[in-house]
Design a protein that fits this description.
A hairpin with a 3-residue loop joins strand 1 and strand 2. The protein contains 14 helices and 2 strands. The chain is about 75% helix and about 0% strand. The chain has a two-stranded antiparallel sheet with strand order 1-2. By secondary structure, it is an all-alpha fold. The mean pLDDT is about 85.
């Protein structure tokens, strides 16, 4: 009952948010929340630390942008093609990486993701190179609804994010999800029970990649551009930070972490300007350039004081 009430309150807040906030920023928060939840499915419930999720996030963004801008595909088909591209990359990367464990698994995903990054850097006809892919149109939903309107687009993105989150919740609470938890807790015992753990790991990896691709493609359509930042290794680090700060292994934690980190990136400069006006201290104007420092301090604080993340600590103390 408490979970249903929490989900209902969150849904009501999300439905009313664009009337009090900037819709484009809210859509960006939804996309990164879905991205963090997709990553959490892999690390929080399967125990696999990937340093390569930026590859799915960014590659799908490039595919969606080209599909809408250069290939003339409709909105729905562009999203589908982008997700399929991310799924294919996830299948290849996962098939190679799951043969190793621990830090070796993480390093392989990082190396493969960097190959995707250098591919985007070199194939300028597809990605735009260092200039990025600009002027991506939003298109029309079902050929009728104009997505150029921010309010309309917000509710489409909200529906996509809810569908992705619902799929994650269903997966976690399914027999498949229980096997993933067993693999995370005690892989040798799962093997002794007769489970083919490599197949389960690969399935979880591909599903996580697909949802990350959905988030990346949606973000590109919302913002109208795609850059190398989304395929760089730092994006993989950013989603790890979101998940750890919010609460790894919890359903709501990655959402809280994504909202906190992305809000800081976008609003810290405005906060510094406001503090300068209130205190007269010019130092506060430099806050906008010190986002990395502030997020680093938040990460260190969470590691020292909230080892399970914000939501994880709250749930632990509540129990």
């Amino acid at each position: 009952m408490n979970k249903k009430l929490g989900y209902s309150i969150a849904l009501l807040l999300a439905l009313g948010a664009p009337f009090v906030g900037y819709p484009v920023l809210l859509m960006k928060l939804l996309c990164f929340s879905l991205f963090a939840c997709a990553f959490n499915l892999l690390i929080g419930f399967t125990g696999l630390l990937s340093f390569g999720h930026a590859a799915f996030f960014g590659a799908a963004g490039y595919v969606a942008g080209n599909a809408l801008k250069n290939w003339g595909l409709p909105f729905e088909l562009s999203l589908t093609v982008a997700v399929l591209a991310g799924t294919a990359i996830g299948l290849v990367m996962g098939g190679l990486a799951i043969r190793r464990q621990g830090i070796y698994f993480s390093m392989i995903t990082l190396a493969l993701a960097q190959m995707v990054y250098f591919g985007a850097l070199r194939f300028t006809d597809f990605s735009g190179g260092e200039d990025g892919l600009q002027g991506v149109p939003r298109g029309r939903l079902l050929g009728m609804v104009d997505l150029g309107n921010d309010l309309t687009m917000y509710y489409v993105v909200l529906a996509i994010a809810i569908a992705g989150f619902a799929l994650i919740v269903r997966t976690v609470h399914s027999p498949f999800g229980q096997v993933l938890k067993a693999i995370k807790e005690n892989e040798p015992r799962a093997i002794s029970l007769g489970y083919d753990v490599d197949k389960y790991k690969l399935a979880a990896f591909v599903l996580s990649a697909s949802l990350a691709a959905l988030a990346g493609a949606t973000k590109t359509i919302v913002l109208g551009f795609e850059t190398l930042t989304d395929v760089h290794w730092s994006m993989s680090g950013l989603v790890i930070l979101m998940t750890l700060v919010g609460g790894m292994g919890t359903l709501a934690g990655p959402i809280i972490g994504a909202i906190l980190i992305i809000s800081l990136e976008n609003k810290l400069g405005d906060f510094g300007t406001m503090m300068t006006g209130l205190t007269g201290m010019e130092w506060f104007t430099t806050l906008g350039e010190a986002v990395g420092l502030v997020t680093g301090l938040i990460f260190v604080t969470c590691v020292l004081l909230f080892r399970k993340g914000i939501v994880g600590e709250i749930l632990s103390r509540h129990r």
